[in-house]
Prior knowledge:
- With 252 residues, the chain is an alpha/beta fold.
- The chain has 8 helices and 7 strands, in the order βαβαβαβαβαβαααβ.
- It has one domain (2-182, 221-245): Rossmann fold (3-Layer(aba) Sandwich), CATH 3.40.50.720.
- It has helices at 15-26, 38-47, 62-76, 99-127, 148-168, 186-199, 203-211, 222-234; strands at residues 6-10, 30-34, 52-54, 81-84, 130-135, 173-180, 242-245.
- The protein has a 7-stranded parallel sheet with strand order 3-2-1-4-5-6-7, with helices on both faces.
- The longest helix is centred in the middle third of the chain and has 29 residues, at 99-127.
- Helix 6 (186-199) packs across helix 7 (203-211).
- 49% of the residues lie in helices and 14% in strands.
- Helix 1 links the parallel strand 1 and strand 2 (30-34).
Amino acid sequence: MAESRTALVTGAGRGIGRAIAQRLSDAGLRVALTSRSQDELEQTAALCAGETLVVPADITDEEGVNRIFTEVEQSWGPLTVLVANAGAADSARLEKTTDAQWQRMLDINLTAPFRCMRRAVPGMRVVGYGRIVVVASTAARVGEPYISAYTASKHGVLGLVRSAAAELASSGVTVNAVCPGYVDTPMTDASIEGIVAKTGRSAQEARQILERKQPIGRLITPEEVAAAVWFCIESAAMSGQAVNVDGGAVQS
């Protein structure tokens, strides 16, 4: 069955998205790759074992989302696996969080996954099979200081996952979330730079702060997140769940 499945991975140019794309390709899926950077997508495609389709687009734009799905469907037919991985983080004190920062977090972390799901579900209903996995965050489960907009967007997307799972339960489509802690990716590198700029700590000290947030004492690897995504895809009985990949930081 894996050979006939077609997957779309958003934010596939680097980090977690690249690791997910490789994992799905290794398992025999055809994988469509999207992000804003064609160069990064081409690099990901070169690392994949099987057939890929590179579709650069801005998923915060509704027309961009429609174009992605149209290209995939015209090339390969109905999409049966959607991994909504693209995301962004921002940090600011609550009273200093601007409307623009707030809206940016909602646009990429909540509205974009919603639009992708809305576009994917009709085709999945037709074929009677679908797997939707949203890469959320432990910020979807608990609140931390200085990331109110990010946390709100991730709590929101987890609510979307749960509602969609309940609605689609009898259709053959499952919907789950994977909630990583701090992962060794360019996004975390940016968080480290932010800590350095705001606190004067060294990059090594800032990295250790984030490492210590995981009880295992290190950052999570992108491959560990990809393994959890694949677990969600393989299971026909698991839906509406949030799978933590955080070294034991959030126990649930």
